[in-house]
Amino acid sequence: MAAEIIVEVTKTFSGRTPIRAGFRYPVEASTVLILFGPSGSGKTTILRSVAGLEWPEEGTIQFVSRVWLDTRSRIKVSPQERHIGYMAQDYALFPNYSVAGNIAYGLGELTLVERQKRVQEMVELFHLTGLEDAKPRELSGGQQQRVALARAVAPRPQLLLLDEPLSALDAPTRAQLRGELRGLLKQLALPSIIVTHDWAEALTLGDVMAVMHEGAILQVGAPQEVFSRPANADVARVVGVETVVQGTLIEAREGLATVRVGEISLTAVAVENVGSDVFVCIRAEDVTLEPAGAGLTSARNHLVGTVSAITSLGALARVTIECGFPLVAVITRSALTELGLTVGASVRASFKAGSAHLISRQ
Ligand code: ADP
Ligand code: MG
């Protein structure tokens, strides 16, 4: 049997809806699980439960061959014995410790010489050379993030838990560190669980993704699968991006990128350092539908296709158009009626270059 992580827990904060999480997945050296969901859905609570910082009133947590929690047989393994690297959302760096001091924090079991060697290794790995004696307040947001990550991985934990690791950073830094973090996690060969509500992060970093909403796990699967094939309307609402297809970047010029998806050529806004293998991500709300023969709008992308599915979302409807790849649009029910859309009907879908987001597929 493959090594697995099994989480099956219920945690209730008084007066609130219980948070119930159930998922299991095979874990290899560098498997990254994404816990994805809106604020308040219970992601941090689950992560803290895995870390042993929160005690669910019921359930089991198992990591590979070790049971960390089993409320029935009263097994409660302490956070220290779990050998976990945990990074809180606000980093929680010690303000009075230097960079080296912060990194050395969990290394008390090593000899002084070993500890200095490990700190030096981490300083190099996380590009912190020259900053060893600096205090956290003297660092940029990106540097603080790297110190927090270095501190979490320095004791060579067997599992790394990161709570919204990039959310405190400004958008350009976030985009840059997203790619670096992916490379680093592969290099460390350390399984990890990463909490995020950012779909670009989920797609870049994740091997498996669990979608949380109001204290429940709604779907578990490969990120691209979950984004492009949400199991139900709740998941679709939570993830918000319903078209994720693989493409090849052909050229980028004057800020616009030409991307091939099968036989189709799309125009997207160019992104730096994205590589030639990309995911093209299009939010369903950004796709407009018109009769196949109508005059063209100013949008860059116009694709004629056939309606392959229509699902009701109350006042809205989700329409899947087969136009060389399955493209999902969400439109009002009245628009659906006006356009006379039924399965098999011909329709033209349009979206702006700025609505086709490119994510590196490495
Ligand atoms: P997320 O990380 O997805 O934003 P959290 O796990 O932090 O969600 O919180 C889930 C729910 O549990 C929220 O309604 C939150 O207010 C509540 N909650 C979290 N921690 C506590 C706590 N220590 N005491 C009471 N309620 C809490
Ligand atoms: Mg949280």
Q: How many H/I helices?
A: 10
Shape: globular
- Radius of gyration from CA coordinates: 23 Å
Number of strands: 21
Across the major sheet, the strand order is 7-8-9-3-10-11
Distance between the termini: 30 Å
Q: Give the rounded overall mean pLDDT.
A: 93
Structural class: alpha+beta
Hetero groups bound? adenosine-5'-diphosphate, magnesium ion
Please mark out the parts with pLDDT under 50 across 5 or more consecutive residues, or reply none: none
**Beta-strand content estimate:** 35-45%
Biggest sheet details: 6 strands, mixed
Task: Work out the helicity level.
Answer: 10-25%
Explain what this protein looks like in three dimensions:
It contains ten helices and 21 strands. By secondary structure, it is α+β, with helices and mostly antiparallel strands. The strands form four sheets. Strands 7-8-9-3-10-11 form a six-stranded mixed beta sheet, with helices on both faces. A five-stranded antiparallel beta sheet has the order 2-1-4-5-6, covered by helices on one side. A hairpin with a 2-residue loop joins strand 13 and strand 14. The mean pLDDT is 93. The radius of gyration is 23 Å and the shape is globular. The site of adenosine-5'-diphosphate has 11 residues, from helix 1.
